[in-house]
Amino acid sequence: MHIFIQVVIDGVILGGFYALMAQGLSMIFGIMRVINLAHGEFLVIGAYLAWMAQRYLGIDVLMALPILIVVGFAVGWVVSRLLIIPVLERPELMPLLITFGLAALIQGVLTLVFTTTPRITTASYSDSVLALFGYRVSVAKVVMLIAAIVLLGLLALFLNRTKAGKAMRATAENREAARIVGIDVTRIYCAAFGVGTATAVAAGALFSVTQGFYPFSGPLFTLKAFVIVILGGRGRIAGTLAAAMFVGLIESALSGYVPNVGTGLGTAAAFILVVVVLAARPKGIFQLRGVTA
């Protein structure tokens, strides 16, 4: 029973991170119909930015987070405007190849600048452990979970309560109808890519305090985010959160009950589950449409 409860705690924390990590990819796919293969690399960029802010400026990751989100949004907007929008009306393979090339470019630049030495961001609470009723949890992971839930909540409010968010939802539902009612679809696409990138950067910054990272960490993040998007259905935050928690619990359970190899089995199990879901319910477990909370 002790192991089971510890597994649940670890799975929920991991699922919270996965939800924030995957939501950006889910938004971009739901609104633009583009699979961003560089999504994990943007997450790694966020990790390195948080590391530099702490190492060279002495700024804690939580203090740096608002700035990193703004930087991530700006980077996403520019990338979308310069690389994605020009090929959006072409065959679907074109945006896929563009983002694949972008991922390779980012990996190369990060390797050139930081080498392949793993890094980890330190914080005042990095070595602290929360012990309650015999269960131990890293304070850094608890902070990551709380911050992820807060950011997802703010994103839900943005999509449901702001004019820009409602325009994104309308564009996701019907692009041509959105154009007819006067929505600047190109601008919405850039904003959506910017928000998705900002979400990935924020996830990377939070992750950097809990575990080491290096320039080639991105592809695994992208694959796991894609798994969650497939399981949860595109766009909706509730679906992404539920799927992320499910994947997190699976990985945590296998890691807890199958020592040494459990983590690898958890990743494999997630992909096996995707195959089953695609065969049984191609739109995802929750049969979602559009982009909503």
TrEMBL record:
Which GO cellular component terms, listed alphabetically, does the Swiss-Prot or TrEMBL entry include?
Answer: plasma membrane
Q: Which residues form a coiled coil?
A: none
Source domain of life is Bacteria
Coarse class of the protein's main subcellular location: membrane
Single Gene Ontology MF annotation: transmembrane transporter activity
Membrane protein topology class: Multi-pass membrane protein
Mind telling me which residue stretches traverse the membrane in this protein? 38-57, 63-84, 96-115, 135-159, 188-207, 238-258, 264-280
- Is Transmembrane helix among the key words of this record? yes
Q: Where in the cell is it found?
A: Cell membrane
Q: Which UniProt keywords apply?
A: Amino-acid transport, Cell membrane, Membrane, Transmembrane, Transmembrane helix, Transport
One GO term under biological process is:
amino acid transport
Tell me the InterPro entries matching this sequence. Answer: ABC_transp_permease, BCAA_transport_permease
The record's comment on protein family reads: Belongs to the binding-protein-dependent transport system permease family. LivHM subfamily.
Question: What name does this protein carry?
Answer: Branched-chain amino acid ABC transporter permease
Recite the lineage of the species: Bacteria, Pseudomonadati, Pseudomonadota, Betaproteobacteria, Burkholderiales
